[in-house]
Amino acid sequence: MHASFAHLLESAKESFSSGTLYVVATPIGNLNDISARALASFNQADIVCAEDTRVTGQMLSAYHIHAKRLVSLREHNERHMAEQVIRWLAEGKMVVQVSDAGTPAISDPGARLVEAVRAAGHPVCPLPGASAVITALSASGFTANSFLFHGFLPAKSGERRKTLLTWLNAPHLTVCYEAPHRIVDTLSDIVSELGPERRVMLARELTKTFETFRSLPANELLAWVSADSNQQRGEIVLIIDAAPARDGDDDSLPEHTLRILKLLAAELPTKQAASLTASITGANRKQLYELALQQKQGTGSAD
Ligand code: SAM
Asked: Which ranges of the chain have pLDDT less than 70?
């Protein structure tokens, strides 16, 4: 075994439980992102269920690990394989599930398997690691506190536009996975549905040689990607910024923001309450201040 991976495997020193399904994340590009626990689980598993056995076989051989048994579990046979996995677990086998890359069940097979295994009363244990959504968000620099993960947008433009329109006034970031051959069409749908100024980040080829982050207003990002065919290759995550706060319109504020403002405004001067709420939630300070003033006037209290 490659010395560094052998050392990593050695460092895990973990005995896994029999009769348990382990859901194991794998790297999304850079093989060094594997965890010691993941390596140890592959080494000890009686069965490794993989989306594509060739892809996982290649990954395991890069770590110089030979799985005892490698079987295919993909979307089209997931229900059937779940029954088989339950039988193995009942026999006391240790089973690992992986997808081609990243975290299983995140725009990948795995959720149905876990649902069935839990329903049959067997333990399920996650071994965390890379996922493109979290990797992209971690280095995005967007400051909104909440995000919606959508996964892949619909392939047809009409459906895609309908989906995009639901985020017109979204107070949260929205993260989508996108195929490279659809990136230009999707960006142009974002421009038409969410407006040319909505900020969007393209996060491409994460953890790989051509890793790229680019955050621009949607129309500028569309022009930049259209002008460079290299940006239309590889694996892509899109992060759509939250809609800009609308002045004086408390309907655009999420419930939890209003609750925080109310609690702080009851204890602090209005300005300070608005300012703190803005720092906590990312909402517009001026809008919060006006709203807190209206609320205080309504209740007859003063600073
Ligand atoms: N389960 C995976 C995860 O946890 O991220 C996602 C699997 S999904 C079938 C594959 C999509 O994830 C790609 O089309 C791309 O949108 C995104 N993705 C995966 N790896 C990526 C990477 N290295 N850079 C950017 N996006 C990536």
From this structure: 1-3, 246-252, 297-303
Q: What value does the CA radius of gyration of the chain take, rounded to a whole number of Å?
A: 24
Residue found by looking up tokens 């598993």 in the block = 45
Provide the 10 A C-beta neighbour count for residue 49. Answer: 31
Region of 100 (left: φ > 0; alpha: ψ -120 to 50; beta: rest) is alpha
Regarding pTM above 0.70, the answer is yes
44-84 tens-digit pLDDT = 999 999 999 999 999 999 999 999 999 999 999 999 999 99
E-only strand ranges, 102-227: 124-127, 147-152, 173-178, 199-204, 212-217
3-130: what CATH class? alpha beta
Structure tokens at 249: 């319109």
Using one digit for the tens of pLDDT, what is the confidence trace for 137-184? 999 999 998 999 999 999 999 999 999 999 999 999 999 999 999 999
User: Residue 181's CB: how many other CB atoms inside 10 A?
Assistant: 10
Q: Pocket around ligand 1: residues whose beta carbon is below 6 Å from it?
A: 28-29, 99, 101-103, 106-108, 131-133, 177-179, 203-208, 235-237
Residue 255, pLDDT score: 78
Among 113, 149, 177, residue to substitute to test ligand 1 (most atoms within 8 Å of Cβ): 177
Domain at 133-240: CATH architecture:
2-Layer Sandwich (3.30)
DSSP run (H or E) holding 50: strand 47-50
